[in-house]
Specification:
38% of the residues lie in helices and 17% in strands. With 207 residues, the protein is of the alpha/beta class. The longest helix has 20 residues.
């Protein structure tokens, strides 16, 4: 199997990583693109660090099982298929899905810490950082955490103020300058997506 072209997509929570990935996935055949997301590599809830108020902090680098994330990434690059359970956070109504990751010509690695973990960053051929204004990210976070993760508004706002933003400012934002491509996404970034799609399709044609 030809070595896949590996793209890392990162940025703050609510910056638009999922939107970008969904748009990319819709433009390619399933066998052409594989997505491995950091969201499915959180450590079990009982292993998460709690803050001074007893609230579990899922936004620290240590919340991620980076060793397993890295090992699965290597397996995919070597042509192996990965089967694992979806991580559903604390949403009691969510039934975990079985996820099957198949090797593909384009491998997308997504998550807020894909550049932070150096062993993962070193596997990336292209590093994309998505940025957005704080109030835009907060609005998106509120909608996502309420709909998908079962957090109420007070919980979302607390986590954003005490967990999300401090971690972003300390660990994530400084890595923006190491990215190959920085995409602003305060309203939309459809033109940037079009450029990226054209570039990737040209690469596929040359494989």
């Amino acid at each position: 199997m030809t070595k896949p072209f590996t793209i890392g997509i990162t940025g703050g929570s609510g910056s638009g990583k999922t939107y970008l990935i969904e748009n990319l996935s819709n433009r390619f055949k399933p066998e052409e693109v594989c997505l491995i997301s950091q969201d499915n590599y959180y450590r079990p809830r009982e292993e998460q660090v709690t803050d001074e108020n007893g609230v579990q902090n899922f936004d620290l680098p240590g919340a991620i099982d980076d060793v397993r994330f890295y090992n699965d990434l290597l397996k995919l690059k070597q042509g192996e298929t990965i089967v694992k359970q979806e991580y559903t956070f604390n949403n009691p109504s969510a039934i975990p899905k079985t996820i099957e990751l198949r090797p593909a010509s384009i491998l997308i690695v997504e998550g807020i810490f894909v550049q932070y973990f150096k062993e993962i960053e070193n596997q990336l051929d292209l590093k994309i950082f998505i940025e957005a204004k704080d109030h835009v990210k907060l609005s998106r976070r509120i909608r996502r955490d309420n709909d998908q993760r079962g957090y109420d508004l007070d919980d979302v706002l607390y986590r954003y103020q005490h967990h999300v933003m401090p971690v972003y400012e300390k660990f994530i934002d400084p890595l923006k300058h190491n990215a190959d491509l920085v995409i602003p996404n305060n309203s939309h970034f459809d033109r940037a997506i079009e450029v990226l799609v054209l570039s990737l399709k040209a690469r596929l044609t040359g494989l």
